[in-house]
Amino acid sequence: MNKKIIGSVFFFIGLIIGVVPLTRTITGYSILNSSSFSVFPFYIISLAFIAMSFIVLTSRTYLDAIIIPTESSTSRIRNKARVGVEAYRDSGAKVIVASGGVMPYLHPGYKHEAHVVYEELRRAGIKPAEIRIDGKSRDTLENVLNSAKKLDKTGAKDIGVVSYPAHLDRFERIFRKAQKDGIISPDLRLHRIETDQTLQETLWEIPARIMTRYQLRRNIKKAQTNVGFIKKGMYGIVRAFFD
Predict the structure, then answer these.
(1) CB 121: neighbour CB atoms within 10 A?
(2) Could you say which of 38, 42, 99, 138 would form a disulfide bridge with 134 (CB–CB 3.0 to 4.6 Å)?
(3) Please, what is the angle between helix 3-19 and helix 40-58, to 10°?
(4) How far apart are CA 69 and CA 167, in angstroms?
């Protein structure tokens, strides 16, 4: 489970327990009075849960590997790579996967979108031996499946994924479906490494979510990726006006 969720649960449990002594009546009768009820234990337990929530939320997450899936904007890909570098150094990860194929309107100086990530990683001092390149993925479905294959022989179990929140939601949904269908090992665990989310990315997610639901309607082995004229047009607009 995501440590943000665990930390938040602990925090709210602490608040609820802390409120109990302030409530004079529960289920219709009074249980709090000076002679039969001590509020001190409630406050101690409340503070303990709140303290645990802060410990969980501020604790360091140790990862085995990090995946950086690309998107339509070259500038946003670079931003993801920079966030990925910071997470890579902080988490103790040993492998980083750059995932993104040849997509419409990509600058001719790059072999594929993963090449943009690789350039940023090398600029930050990440060694080539620590980088895996997936230069074939054309959408998030292929990002998930191809990145998992790149990590097959690394022994990685805890994997961080760098992207904006709405994209991570889709990435996780595909990942869970792939585990359910037996394509990806159930032992792998995803950890969200969130970037900020731009208006362009928010708008992109509207059709992207529809496409993902369509792809996952059957067994993931039968899911298909199609870069049609609509997606090509969207890529062209993004790179023309947002890059």
Answers:
(1) 22
(2) 99
(3) 160
(4) 10
Q: Residue 171 belongs to what H/E stretch?
A: helix 165-180
Give the residue from 114, 130, 128 showing the smallest Cα distance to 80.
114
How far apart CA 185 and CA 190 sit, in angstroms, is 12
Q: How many residues does the chain have?
A: 243
Instruction: Express each pLDDT in 3-55 by its tens digit.
Output: 667 768 877 786 787 676 656 444 444 444 544 456 667 678 878 877 877 77
Type and span of the H or E element at 133: strand 131-134
User: Could you tell me the two tokens for 173?
Assistant: 């949904």
Per the listing, tokens 């902080």 go with 90
Q: How many CB atoms lie within 10 A of CB 14?
A: 20
Q: Which of 165, 164, 167, 131 is nearest to 150 (CA)?
A: 131
Mean pLDDT in residue range 187-210? 95
Token pair 């067994």: residue: 219
Residue 128 three-state SS: helix
